[in-house]
Each structure stands twice: as structure tokens, then as C-alpha cells.
Amino acid sequence: MDSNRLLKQRIRRLKQLPTLPSLLRELFEVLQDEQSNFADIARIIKHDQTITERILRVANSPYFGHSGYVSTIEQAIMFLGYDLVKGICLGASVFKLLDGGKKRTLSNLWRHSFEVGIIAANIADQKSSSDPSVCFVAGLLHDIGRVVLLTLDMKKYLKIISSDDLVTEEMDCFGIDHALAGAEFLRNANLPEEIVATALFHHRPEEAESFPDLAGITAVAELLSRRFFPKDEDDGIWSEQTEGILLRMGLEDQDLILLEEAVKRQADELASAMSMN
Ligand SMILES: [Fe+2]
Ligand SMILES: [Fe+2]
To answer: Most exposed among 69, 81, 265, 266, judged by the fewest C-beta atoms under 10 Å?
Structure first.
């Protein structure tokens, strides 16, 4: 069997890891069951106090601008939407996977992920017909493959995590990059096809045959995150293609100044609700 298939198999087996928190295992089961509905996911979330609190904090955060107080998981799902709650649950539980020692790296990766989500949602809102909340989830989960690679070999991955050419380094070290690793993981969790495709193409949006707008928005959001929220864990790389997307979207200098102001404020509004602590 070639090494690529072997790696994909290891990613598929991740959900059976004994160390996987029971919430994540149950979540996988519900996500994989096409018959499941929001009552099933609410039942699972309620068993986990930390995730319950996080979802309620997110639903009540100024970022989502809800006027009344959201006090139950059912209300939160109704208000935020099933896909958004699924995305937050999956993201929050996966990014918590590797505790011990590497907390800072993971929380920075998580922060990078929701910053990309916020930028993507704002671009969608202003410059495209894509649904901002779908863009938010796509951004939130775009780099989940980096946690997958960290889980496969933490020592090896930490050596390359801040590389300026991360995708090439990943291919050299793992024979797979985080885009493919993430897409495999998300497909396996039965996340919607547009979220899977976005994870797969977020570093080469010009190749996305399905959902090219979403992949383009996420790629541009990833690039802008390096400019707005620079950190060791960001991984946006300017290229002619992404610059072309920026132009096609009509994002000009003045738009970028306003966008930066808005997303920085929103990231602050969401930070404590999303906090890993
Ligand atoms: Fe990435
Ligand atoms: Fe990223």
C-alpha cells in the first residue's frame, strides 16, 4: 500500500484513538449518522460542561449580536444554526486534543482559525453572495489538518510549524499536507462537502472545482490574517493567484483598512468566548 493511502487510513483511525475524549467520539458518531438531528447533538453537548459553556458564551458574545440571552443549547443551535454549532464543537474539541506542554501552540492555532473565520465571514458579507456563517465555519476548520498532523507526530510537526513554506515542508516530512489531512478528517466526520472542499483547497483555491468562491474567500482570509493578526502559527502565503482573487473580489486598499478595523474589534469580542482556558 502506498504511503499516502496508509496515512489516510491513519487519519480515519484517529476517531478510534483511545485518548480521544468521549465527547469527540460521540460527536463523530452523531455527525456520521445522516439521520441525526439537532436534538441528538444537543444531548451530547449537554454531557460536556466545558463545551456547553463555550457554545453558550459564543451565542451570547457581542460578535453574534443577539439581543436576548441565550441560555440553553437548543436555543443556541436555533440561533447560531446547526452547522455552526457542529463546527464549533468539532473545532473546540479537536484543538483541545493535545494538552500537556503544547497548549500555547494549540491555542494560537485555534485563535488563528477563528480569526480566519471572522475575516472570511466579513468578506462574504461585503463582497460575495456566500453565506457568512458558512464562511465562518469554513475558516474555523480550515487548518484542522495541522492538529491532525500534530497528533500523528508532534515532535516532527513542531519543527516545521512556523515554516514560511509549510505545505512543502509537510509534504517532505509526512508525504501529505495539512489541507489534505484536514479534508480527510472532516469528510470522515461527515461535515458538509463545502467545508471539506474548502479545507482541501484553501492553499490552492484556483484548483477548486466545487465551491470555488468559498475556497477563494478562505484563502484570501488566510492571507489577510497574516497581515492583521501576525503570529508564528499563521500560514498564509501571498501568491499571484490569491492576489488575483483579491482583485476579482474588488477588495481595495480602503476596503482593507475598514476590514482590518472591523475584524480586530470582532476578534476581541469573540476571544473570551472562544478562549481555550
Ligand atoms: Fe492552512
Ligand atoms: Fe491557516
So the answer is: 69
